[in-house]
TrEMBL record, chain A:
GO terms for cellular component: membrane. It comes from the Bacteria. This is Ger(X)C family spore germination protein. Gene3D superfamilies: Nutrient germinant receptor protein C, domain 3 (3.30.300.210). Residues 31-213 form the Spore germination protein N-terminal domain. The keyword Disulfide bond does not apply. Belongs to the GerABKC lipoprotein family. It is found in: Membrane. Residues 224-387 form the Spore germination GerAC-like C-terminal domain. It comes from Biomaibacter acetigenes. Signal peptide: none annotated. Keywords: Germination, Lipoprotein, Membrane, Palmitate, Signal. It is a lipid-anchor. One of its GO terms (biological process) is spore germination.
Length: 390, 365
């Protein structure tokens, strides 16, 4: 072969290889999936099924088609929605796990379930009572589950929560999610996302404080909380107890307190602006003793007609608010110590972090020690603003 | 003797070292230190950095003492051919296996977080092809790529993890100093793996333009790596807690999912994280792969190193698909770490001591 021919041969070999590689590399992608072939799951509800050991899993799926049509026709306006089609659908299936449930749906739906935009996980009361351990693992193991989604335990069936039809919002999932954003309006529920929940579960051996959700036909109520002890539901907290624990943990960013007014004529509403807390270990011994100082700041938003505020009244109101806060905190603590005997106040964590040597002695028997822990509570209140009337 | 007259400057060497070291370690380091020392884990990063720097001084001393030679030559000069030759082969194997494991971890993470159904072999092979392309052009372009990619890598990594701070709880770093000293000392060995990569100096030593400043190069490179690691470990601990860190395979990547950029403009930073991770893995593979090829070239006294790059590709690929699953990969990484201590610390130390005793090479460092 002449050198010229050689050059041509080499060149054509190069071109051939390049084109061949382009075919291989550019032809597509294994992970390519059309967006219109996917169903985005907004929420997952897990209940026990009739068959032992299996779960009834409900997926809350927004119907993109109906929404897109609705925007053009309705155009906002109080949430009547466009068209007569429902904006969401709830699909339920009996399965061994969430993944199994999602795969089961492949027999009925021609699309792929995607959990990337999941907003809420609701666990039914029955499942919570028999232990959440088997159902929560996939949220940790699989990356596609959003760690920022909310998790709550339903009073009753989780499916009922999935089936609500709120009038304020088109998508129940968004409605549920934004409900939990109201922490600055009310501190009477337990706030926390899936990441926080998993964090508690792993740190405290299955003890956790979770949001509670009680379904109605149209709306849900998220007041109160649920206490998990060793992955099992130990019981509920009332709204007051939940707020008491929020005060204890320094998580309060808003809410209101209503008290009797100092002159005995009616009620005074106190709006909480912020609250600080300080926890101190005061004594060790067979059971440690703590001192909790809470400082509440807020405004007075309404009083009964005819009550005028003066310095004296203001002090009385401050005292009354302090008393009310203190009683809520004590109620919360005593419920956890006496009834559920489980430390979700993170006292153990506090000892572990700030008094590691002491914690070593308590660590193994902490569950028995916790109910005997003495906590003294002191609350101070400051009125910052009284509005524009005296 | 040298196959290539290109030399790299001091800043280029620093960039080459940082980008080579910064690789798979950053993803698993928080888990390793959490398992070794709990909330005191971040201290291990500091002690590991100091330990890595001190042991890298041995390699630095060798580079200074033999400014014209690579490990292959001076090991034979100092220990004799019979001992030196097998050491050269071990070095080649080490770099090959480390390249393979790095590209394997890269594909593991890609498969876990983004390209779920793309075959692993395809990810590995395309990544290696890219490396081969750049490596064929020699040391200078590799160092230059390192220099260009370094700021592109570091700045977004820092910025991305900074956005986690508003949600972070720094009390997770407590209790402080609650771990026995013995545990801390043993745990340091766990972190040292993450600083490996400086041993590429064994091979690229003679290509540095001013080998006299190798100490500075090492100080700056390992110092910056320590700071970056410290930052990432503290952020990971504070964001998800020590207990969660223990069970996550790649905690530094998992926490990206919990981060929301301020203002809600970018709800997800996954794509950015994957891009950065690709850069980090690419530069690490480059450094290791190049050092391995160079070792083969010098050992066979060949004139052309490009040939060996292509020859090594299938072997790297085959080794990289040996581990069966992520857990297996992690076990391999641990074995490679132990071998790494041999290669990067013990063998150079022996050679240095023998060379001083037998008075070979240039003046002592």
């Amino acid at each position: 072969m002449s050198p010229f021919c050689k050059k041509i041969a080499r060149k054509s070999l190069f071109i051939f290889t390049a084109v061949f590689l382009a075919f291989v590399i550019l032809s597509g992608c294994w992970d390519y999936r059309d967006i219109d072939k996917r169903l985005f799951v907004g929420g997952v509800g897990i209940d026990k099924s009739q068959q032992p050991g299996r779960y009834n899993i409900s997926f809350l799926i927004p119907i993109v088609r109906a929404i897109a049509g609705g925007e053009g026709g309705g155009g906002g306006g109080g949430g009547g929605g466009g068209g007569n089609q429902k904006p969401v659908e709830v699909e339920s299936t009996v399965a061994d796990s969430i993944t199994d449930g999602a795969r089961n749906l492949a027999l009925r739906l021609n699309r792929d379930l995607s959990f990337e935009h999941m907003r809420v996980v609701v666990i039914g009361e029955d499942v919570a009572k028999s232990g959440v351990e088997p159902v929560i693992n996939p949220f940790m193991r699989q990356m596609e589950f959003n760690r920022r989604s909310r998790i709550a335990i339903a009073e009753g069936e989780a499916r009922k929560v999935m089936e609500i039809q709120p009038w304020v919002e088109k998508f129940p999932a968004l409605y549920l999610e934004s409900l939990f954003g109201n922490e600055s309006l009310s501190g009477k529920f337990i706030d926390g996302d899936l990441g926080d929940f998993l964090h508690q579960i792993h740190d405290f051996n299955g003890n956790a404080l979770v949001s509670k959700i009680s379904p109605d036909s149209q709306e849900v109520n998220i007041g109160g909380g649920a206490v998990l002890k060793h992955f099992k539901l130990a019981g509920w907290l009332t709204e007051e107890e939940a707020r008491g624990i929020n005060f204890f943990q320094g998580k309060i960013t808003g809410g209101n307190i209503t008290i009797d007014d100092p002159e005995g004529k009616g009620k005074v509403t106190f709006i909480i602006l912020r609250a600080h807390r300080q926890l101190q270990l005061t004594a060790d011994g067979p059971a440690p003793e703590f001192r909790l100082k809470v400082c509440v700041e807020g405004n007075i938003s309404d009083t009964t007609e005819g009550v005028s505020l003066n310095i004296h009244n203001e002090e009385v109101i401050e005292d009354l608010v302090s008393k009310e806060v203190k009683s809520e905190i004590l109620k919360g603590i005593s419920r956890l110590q006496q009834d559920y005997r489980v430390d979700v106040l993170k006292l153990g964590e506090y000892l572990h972090k700030y008094h590691p040597k002491l914690w070593k002695d308590y660590k193994d028997r902490w569950e028995d020690i916790f109910p005997d822990v003495m906590i003294s509570v002191a609350v101070t209140t400051k009125v910052k603003n009284i509005g524009v009337t005296k | 003797m040298l196959t290539n007259n290109d030399r790299i400057t001091v800043p280029q060497t620093v960039a080459l070292l940082i980008t080579t070291i910064l690789g798979t370690g950053i993803l698993s380091l928080p888990r390793n230190v959490a398992n070794a020392a709990g909330s005191d884990g971040w201290l291990l990063v500091l002690s590991g950095g100091v330990f890595a720097f001190v042991s890298s001084l041995i390699v630095g001393a060798l580079v200074k003492k033999f400014p014209q030679d690579t490990f292959i030559e001076y090991s034979q000069k100092v220990l004799g051919k019979i001992l030196g030759y097998p050491l050269g082969i071990i070095l080649i194997l080490y770099f090959t296996i480390l390249t393979a494991l790095t590209v394997r971890v890269f594909s593991e993470v890609m498969n876990a977080f983004m390209l779920i159904s793309t075959p692993r072999g395809f990810i590995i092979f395309t990544m290696l092809l890219l490396s081969v392309y750049i490596l064929r052009h020699g040391i200078e372009p590799i160092a230059r790529i390192g220099e260009i990619l370094l700021p592109i890598l570091i700045v977004p990594v820092v910025a991305m993890y900074l956005t986690a701070i508003p949600r972070a709880d720094f009390s997770e770093l407590l209790p402080f100093l609650n771990t026995p000293v013995k545990t801390l000392a043993l745990g340091t060995f766990q972190t040292v793996y993450s600083f490996f990569g400086f041993e590429v100096l064994l091979m690229v030593g003679p290509y540095i333009r001013s080998p006299g400043r190798v100490l500075w190069i090492l100080l700056v490179a390992i110092g910056s790596i320590t700071l970056i690691y410290l930052f990432v470990v503290i952020i990971v601990f504070a964001s998800i807690g020590v207990e969660d860190t223990r069970i996550l395979l790649w905690p530094s990547m998992s926490i990206i999912r919990t981060i929301m950029a301020p203002g809600g403009i970018f709800e997800r930073l996954d794509a950015l994280a994957m891009a950065l991770w690709t850069i980090a893995a690419f530069t690490t593979i480059n450094g290791m792969y190049y050092a391995g090829t160079l070792a083969v070239t010098h050992l066979t006294k060949a004139k052309e190193f490009k040939f060996f790059i292509t020859i090594m590709l299938p072997w790297v690929y085959l080794i990289s698909i040996i581990p069966e699953n992520p857990l297996d990969t992690i076990r391999w990484m641990q074995v490679a770490g132990v071998v790494g201590i041999m290669i990067a610390v013990i063998i150079p130390a022996v050679i240095l001591m023998v060379s001083i005793v037998r008075n070979k090479g240039g003046k002592t460092a």
